[in-house]
Specification:
Elements lengths: L2 H24 L5 H17 L8 E6 L1 H5 L8 H13 L4 E5 L8 H11 L4 E8 L23 E3 L3 H4 L3 E4 L3 E2 L5 E5 L1 E3 L4 E3 L1 H10 L3 E3 L3 E4 L2 E4 L5 E3 L11 E3 L1 H5 L11 E6 L7 E2 L7 E2 H14 L7 H24 L3 H23 L7 H37 L4 H9 L8 E13 L1 H5 L4 H21 L3 E5 L3 E6 L8 H22 L2 H4 L3 E16 L5 E5 L1 H15 L4 E4 H7 L7 E9 L8 E8 L9 H5 L1
Parallel strand pairs: 1-14, 1-15, 2-3, 2-15, 3-5, 21-23
Antiparallel strand pairs: 3-4, 6-7, 7-13, 8-9, 10-11, 11-12, 16-17, 18-20, 18-21, 19-20, 21-22, 23-25, 24-25
């Protein structure tokens, strides 16, 4: 499978994963993502910070002060009637009582409260009773209202109270973290649909007709964007009491300000410790439910709520599919640190866009997109690392294989300049040839495995001496080798290093032959020829190239091995090499000559010198050296 096909398959699988994650979550599965989204929503709300709410709502709180100053909880109906009566006298737009008046109490108190409720615009709280802990059940009818939370029944205020007021369902929807993230605007049983408490208050305060559209609500001519189940997403302005709040005790004390009530929406609710409903929010561990309800009412009246409608869900679906594909594409496009940095930059940009949208009233889902992006990106990155490790091992093996055929200096030079010797280069260089004598006859009488071991040991000895002197073995010629000094570029001491290598080979091969079994060592010898002069260095071959040198210098160095054998010597050197090496003899070696001789295949005379080890074995060439 080619790399392009692999990338295409990875992108397709990533897209399918993202689409599957989004679809599964949208259909009510993967509930753990709701907890993550609630946590991310709290974080985004805290980053956004506290906001000043539109000054439309006043909360009259039945709080601890009321209880401490002689009251009790639940507040007696007669006391509640006094609270309501005082508020009505200050001309509010609407009085919303966020208390469940479902039980009978003292007859006088109930009658007093009922009469008081008839004196002004009132909205009372009802509760929806659900068959399970979950408020959302499978739809049982067709049409847009099929997605509404379906209750078994509604717990309504006593008829004596409900006859003088409108009624709204006060239930809120909490996320996995327990924090209310939205409030359903509509509820239903098998035979009726009921408005929520905030929506009933808003329609009464605005005095606008309510229209239920397929995917949103209309208050008069203003659209109220809701979630897909007609729930109103809410975002908190700040900690408790951010929305204007006064204690009900101020009514009993006669200190209630008219300005706090007149022409405003007044919500009466409990905030007494242990007496009311409390919820965790991004700014408070415990916020009274009346403030949650008042937040929703403010959103409906001011139109400043956060948007999470069908268009936003489409954007979430696209993000869940396209963002992971983009990240995987970047990692595939740049299999390097640049690709990782680019992918990280895209993730940071997405997070910044998500936060920017949230702070400007658009709630893009973060948890679903992360669940769609992180696993495929992590898996793809892991596969990339694994494949990179395999490639590293592969190229390391190739490098080790190359090291068997190319000198380290040439390997390093090829790594820096892949075009090295792509065109032939003429230069001066030193060339050393070495060859085993008697090997052909020995091979006719010796086991092939033993011959292979013999050649391996001989080649290893040559390679070690060449590398130690900075030479390059351009090739092993069966039982011989050619060593070149002058690549990857000519050096002033090429000749001197070639001379040293020749002497080291002379001594090393002598010791090696002496260590062989007599049946083998007595049959083989060696000869070495070394010359210095102009060569043409180039690459030969097409699909399998090798570096070599050609020219008269190479031919002379090769023929010098014959000259050495003909003159009972093992190492023949030209005066050109000795002059270039500035060699004047050594105390541990004997240099004899000069010999003016012709070499096969070349006209003219070559001046040759012979080097022998002063402390080595007998200098007499073996019979094998003379005839091989």
């Amino acid at each position: 499978m080619t790399r392009r096909v692999q990338i295409l398959v990875a992108l397709v699988l990533t897209a399918l994963w993202g689409a599957g994650i989004y679809a599964a979550h949208a259909n009510g599965h993967l509930r753990f993502l709701d907890h993550l989204e609630a946590t991310l929503t709290d974080l985004r709300t805290q980053i956004r910070g506290v906001q000043v709410p539109p000054d439309l709502v006043t909360i009259v709180a039945i709080d601890d002060t009321v209880v401490k100053r002689g009251g009790s909880y639940p507040l007696p109906r007669a006391d509640l009637a006094r609270v309501v009566d005082t508020i009505v006298q200050f001309k509010p737009k609407v009085v919303a009582i966020d208390l469940l008046l479902v039980d009978r109490s003292a007859a006088i108190g109930d009658a007093t409260l009922a009469n008081t409720l008839a004196t002004g615009p009132m909205v009372l709280a009802a509760a929806a009773i659900f068959p399970t802990a979950s408020e959302t059940v499978a739809p049982s009818s067709e049409g847009p209202l099929a997605v509404l939370p379906q209750a078994e029944r509604f717990l309504l205020p006593l008829p004596a109270f409900a006859d003088h007021a409108e009624v709204g369902v006060v239930n809120v929807a909490t996320g996995q973290s327990g924090s209310p993230l939205s409030i359903p605007m509509l509820f239903r049983t098998h035979d009726k649909v009921e408005l929520s408490f905030p929506l009933r208050v808003a329609t009464r305060a605005l005095d606008k007709p309510l229209t239920i559209a397929p995917d949103h609500l209309m208050l008069g001519d203003r659209a109220v964007p809701t979630d897909t189940d007609f729930a109103l997403p809410i975002t908190y302005y700040g900690p408790r009491r951010t929305i204007r709040t006064v204690s009900a005790q101020s009514i009993f004390d006669g200190t209630l300000s008219r300005a706090a009530i007149e022409n405003r929406i007044v919500v009466i609710g409990a905030s007494v410790a242990g007496g009311g409903d409390f919820y965790p929010t991004p700014f408070d561990s415990l916020m009274p439910g009346v403030e949650v309800i008042s937040t929703a009412i403010t959103h409906l009246i001011a139109g400043d709520g956060i948007v999470r409608d069908r268009k936003v869900h489409i954007a979430d679906a696209l993000a869940a599919i396209l963002l992971p594909m983009l990240l995987v594409g970047l990692l595939a496009w740049r299999r390097s640190a640049f690709g990782v940095v680019a992918a990280a930059a895209v993730m940071i940009a997405w997070a910044g866009l998500n936060l920017f949208a949230f702070t400007h009233g658009i709630w893009l889902n973060g948890a679903t997109t992360l669940a769609a992006a992180v696993p495929p990106v992590a898996i793809f990155a892991g596969v990339q690392l694994w494949a990179g490790g395999r490639r590293t091992q592969y190229f390391a093996a190739k490098s080790r294989s190359l090291a068997l055929f190319q000198a380290p200096a040439v390997q390093e030079w090829l790594a820096r300049d892949p075009n090295f010797l792509s065109k032939p280069v003429r230069q001066d260089a030193a060339v050393v040839f070495i060859d085993l004598s008697g090997f052909t006859a020995l091979s006719e009488r010796t086991d092939p495995d033993a011959l292979t071991d013999l050649l391996k040991a001989f080649h290893a000895l040559i390679d070690k001496a060449a590398v130690a002197c900075g030479g390059m073995v351009t090739g092993f010629l069966g039982d011989g080798a050619m060593i070149l000094f002058g690549l990857p570029h000519a050096m002033p001491d090429d000749a001197a290093r070639a001379l040293k290598c020749s002497i080291d080979l002379h001594r090393g091969v002598e010791r090696w032959i002496a260590s062989l079994p007599p049946a083998i060592g007595g049959q083989v010898g060696f000869k070495i020829g070394a010359h210095f002069g102009p060569i043409v260095a180039s690459r030969l071959g097409e699909s399998h190239q090798h570096i070599t040198a050609t020219g008269d210098t190479v031919n002379v160095a090769s023929r010098l091995m014959e000259v050495a054998a003909q003159n009972d010597a093992r190492l023949a050197l030209t005066d050109t090499l000795l002059d270039a090496a500035d060699f004047h003899g050594a105390p541990d070696g004997v240099l004899t000559g000069p010999l003016l001789t012709q070499v096969r295949g070349r006209s003219g005379v070559v001046t040759v010198w012979f080097w022998r080890d002063r402390n080595g074995p007998s200098q007499a060439a073996t019979k094998a050296e003379m005839i091989d």
